[in-house]
Amino acid sequence: MKKFNIRKVLDGLKEASSSTPSVQVGPQENHLIQENLQSEHFQLCKTVRHGFPYQPSSMAFDPVQKILAIGTQSGALRLFGRPGVECYCQHESGAAVIQLQFLINEGALVSALADDSVHLWNLRQKRPAILHSLKFNRERITFCHLPFQSKWLYIGTERGNIHIVNVESFMLSGYVIMWNKAIELSSKAHPGPVVHISDNPMDEGKLIIGFESGIVVLWDLKSKKADYRYTYDEAIHSVAWHHEGKQFICSHSDGTLTIWNVRGQGKPIQTITPHGKEDGKKPEPCKPILKVEYKTTRNGEPFIILSGGLSYDTVGRRPCLTVMHGKSTAVLEMDYPIVDFLTLCETPYPNDFQEPYAVVVLLEKDLVVIDLAQNGYPIFENPYPLTIHESPVTCCEYFADCPVDLIPALYSVGSRQKRQGYSKKEWPISGGNWGQGTQSYPEIIITGHADGTVKFWDASAIMLQVLYKLKTAKVFDRNRSKEDKGSTDVSDEDPFAIQIMAWCPESRMLCVAGVSANVIIYRFSKLEVTTEVLLEVRMQYELNDIESPDGGGGGGEQTSALPTPGASPQTSGPPSHPPTSSNNSDGGNVPCLKVRSTPLKQSPGYQVDLVVQLVWVSGEPPQQITSLALNSSYGLVVFGNSNGLAVVDYIQKTVVLNLGTVELYGSNDPYQRQPRSPRKTRQPSGAQWSHLSCLSRTVIALRVLYLSCFLLTVLLSVCPPRGANPLDHRDNSFSRSRSSSVTSIDKEAREAISSFHFCETFARKGDSTLTHCLYVGTSLGTVLVLALTLPPAGEQRQLQPVIISPTGMLVRLKGSILRMAVLDSTGSQMPPAYEPWFEPNVTADGEEREKVRKRRPVSVSPSTSQDLNESQYAVVCSEKQAKVISLPSQTCIYKHSITETSFILRVDVVQMSQGMCVACFCANGHIMTLR
Asked: The CATH number of the domain where 72 resides is what?
């Protein structure tokens, strides 16, 4: 396979372009870190493609090897076997795959494309490849047929002719069935394109040829003439044989099925309108039956399976697959339009009783397999990772080198989740075999979805496997009153959509932020619990405006965060219910979603520990959350939005810090924003909060410390409304500031918190000791540092408060801050400290409880015996730039402008075998690495 080298972007951050200003440092600092990475160390290699095939167009099945093939409109091929067996191939032309035919039990596949080319694929090698190709120049291909154990491929065309290809040499034979000789004098007009070809099950020398106009011809290959011709007034869409070869059935454009005797040339022996009700003498009109299959059983009635044919009067009805078995007719509704279907049978021989046992239905956005052997025709549970977009993915996170016991733990709780209504039989597509993968470390992908679900996927193997599924919407009451609906919905379509996720693999703590301005904190437990009342903290803020430096105000929408004049920190206990005020009529003190008050049975897996919600104030909805992070060692969750940040201690269930963006700067605010009086139409209501109490049936009084209040005014959408261009509001979003200038009043007034990073580093310039810190990145390119003072582990951690104090600004870059990391003196990344997982629902008393309570966190920072005067390095990446800061001197030693014409969507500091690098994914589709 040809290898592609990633374009060399930079030999070293120290060797930046001369056009880019950089700080000159001494040679002794330049060589502190050994840099071995080169551009040739990075290579792109196609491995696998996950998810449902985009725009599927055709399907085929090998009944012996039990492999399914799906073709798409973009020329892609997907091969599916047993769970874990999957392969992706691509036709170079990119033309749509109109039909697929397996060479049954031979490890080969024929594909016919919309560009009138036919290809023979070899599937017997590790990566399938095309052996032969054939291109038609004067005729358009409409249908192909390859009989079982035959070496002749029949190709029908739009002109009505049939060409025959030798499969072994993949060359055209001289034998051509011309349309005019096939129909002779039975019709004066052209019969239309060939829509069907198949051989008689009892005699492969006899071909049934179906023309679109309604003419069917039984052709004798040996005598090169037609034995019989059958004519019907309606257009034909498909034809199917009875296994005895004496009858066949046709589906028509008027929603009828006609059954013909081979030797009877006049009229069909039976005409059926499956969905047409008799209204007097004339049946009601029906839609075309696009495909029909006729399968027989040894000890029962035959199956007639068809798609389409619904009455025109059934407006708005879903697409259906109809199964007719004896006197019963089952109509199976599908969620999406049917592209194709195949009936799976016990035997590949067409002249024997087929004994159908399942139907594979290919939909536009799903793959459904129906069990024909069970009453009610239940579907099989699909083991393939095709449901990644079952609900639209709104966020995604990838974790490599996870703890070895994590995937088994997730699988254990996920396998116990109830799955009702599925067939009890094993998945019938069971062919193929993969060797053991060479991957040596566990990988997990977490996806958040628009319906509020979170899915954990095992990405260690070739194919994704669902480990566990979490439904966050269970936390909230879906039955909102009519009064609430009008004032509390931020997102009408997807109020439960997941916006951001933070996960600690070691402690298994999970934190998700929703589009409705809520944060849910989960703990992992192997035991089932019933939570009587969910613990909720509601946070409310005052609304003020910012006056721009020129006195112009900033407009009605350009508001920012400031503390309420005269407001003092509140440490008193909360009221037992939300306070009532005049603001409640227009949405004051009300969260976007209502936490359920009834008992919640929480199965093994992720269980709710705490819910934090931002509430409406004076008719203004809370702003959506723009950044989120957690640290299991500190027991803290921090989240931010367009006006500030809040730190929550989930151990004590306490809000530790609630600080506006302006206050993070203190007296060193570079933008010199000036406060302006609140709008006259808004009445200040002060900082208030309330809770719905506790997990243990006992009401716990929570102590909430408010250091200040900040504003929640402008609603930022994670996903644009359906039908809207997602780029229309790019310049209004905090994370998509394209200007390198930081003097825009509009952008200053909308400075948002864009990223967080917990670390143990030097909090202030010139410090000699390491401190627990929180780095805060903003949308204006500023990195600020908060110093954390934590109580000792054990009982004191449960009682003493966490103290957080801002220490000032570390660095400024162009564009929104996306990623921050800390390296030690050798250039190795220093991940944050974490707490190992323990079972939170301990049932034993005495010593076991005491062990859990005294469990100490694991720190990955340098030990106290190390020379703390040794330098660290902070790596900061924004949408435009990357900088490396030496600590504790806070000197910028490297600086690089990554992109000027585009912007970075995602960036991370990655550990490679040769050293550390910064990997960037840009909006223009480029992947760049900086070392």
From this structure: 2.40.10
